[in-house]
Amino acid sequence: MSNALVFQSDFGLQDGAVSAMYGVACSVNHELNICDITHDIPQFNIWEASYRLVQTMNYWPVGTVFVSVVDPGVGSDRRSIVARTNSNHFIITPDNGTLTHIGKIYGISQLRVIDEEINRLPNSSESYTFHGRDIFAFTGARLASGVIDFENIGPEVDPSSYIKLPIKECTIENNTVKGTIDILDVRYGSIWSNISRTEFINQGATYGDLIEVTIEHKGKKVFKQLVKYGRSFADVKIGDPILYVNSLDQMAVAVNQGSFTNEYGILTGIDWEISIKVLSKNI
To answer: In this structure, is the dihedral angle defined by the CA atoms of residues 71, 77, 78 and 84, taken in order, positive or negative?
Structure first.
């Protein structure tokens, strides 16, 4: 019985790139269960690729094979790797930082470098710019189908040797939790922080509290306002901001039926810092 094969990339769907990866996978095993996380990751945005994996992986069955291709270094000497997580999922990706969040939150138990002499689409050795099709999709389909097992991927290396993107940890001082804006809820314009619900409520917060939310970019204040902490968007008026717990149990800020990102011009990354502080109760 095959495991699921799940793709994500920055390829978009305007040409045949994703379909070509599907075709390669089906040529290995036409009965494979092939699914997608997204193919709309912004071009070359390795950070977002890393985050979308950790947003998704834990909801898939043990043994699922993920192929993540955001690969600005394609054709260079960067490694092609397969990670086995502590949860026994598999991630096939270029070694460029894509494993950052998975490694931090779930842990990597084993790591192998793909032997491209064996695990490569036949007759593709002179193609250097589409490893998503020629190496990652082909290897992913073979692994998910059971044509090869993890030990046949290639040489095992130190499981901590993968490239890691820089991450800032949260800090807590004087009932204020400080963190970073990690990602956007793209379609609705909410911002998702790296501050956990536990870190926040340990400061004494309860639903209905008025919270001081401050956002800075490279030391410049971009947003500072009192925001209600609510269970859902309907806890505030249309057009008002709200602080809430997102689907990953972390703190987020949205505008009810609006876009917080568009309204305030806020983006993501470790240079975007957010502070949340409880000021008063139950308004």
So the answer is: positive
Is the distance from CB of 245 to CB of 204 less than 8 angstroms? no
Greatest Cα pair distance, the chain, in angstroms, is: 67
Tell me the two tokens of residue 250. Answer: 């972390």
Mean pLDDT across the chain: 94
Closest by alpha carbon to 56, among 16, 15, 108, 106?
106
Strand order in the sheet with 156-157: 34-36, 5-9, 65-69, 90-94, 80-85, 108-113, 156-157
Tokens of 237: 């008026």
Closest CA to 101 of 57, 161, 153, 66: 57
Question: What does residue 152 show for φ and ψ, rounded to 5 degrees?
Answer: -90, 5
- More confident position, 283 or 207: 207
- Which of 53, 84, 88, 56 is closest to 69 using CA atoms? 53
The answer to whether the pTM exceeds 0.90 is: yes
Which residues, in sequence order, are CB contacts of 205 under 8 Å at separation 6+?
211, 229, 278
pLDDT on residue 125: 82
| HSE-up of residue 14 (Cα within 13 Å, Cβ side) | 4
What domains are there in the chain, each with its CATH number?
A: 5-157 (3.40.50.10790), 171-280 (2.40.30.90)
Which tokens go with 29? 């095993």
CA-closest candidate to residue 111, choices 51, 54, 60, 162 = 162
Query: What's 180's DSSP letter?
Result: E
Amino acid occupying residue 156? E
Q: What is the pLDDT of residues 35-69, one digit of tens each?
A: 999 999 999 999 999 999 999 999 999 999 999 99
**Is the CB of residue 184 less than 8 Å from the CB of residue 190?**
yes
203, 278 Cβ separation under 8 angstroms: yes
The helix (H) or strand (E) run that includes residue 47 is helix 46-56
Whether pLDDT at 194 is above 80: yes
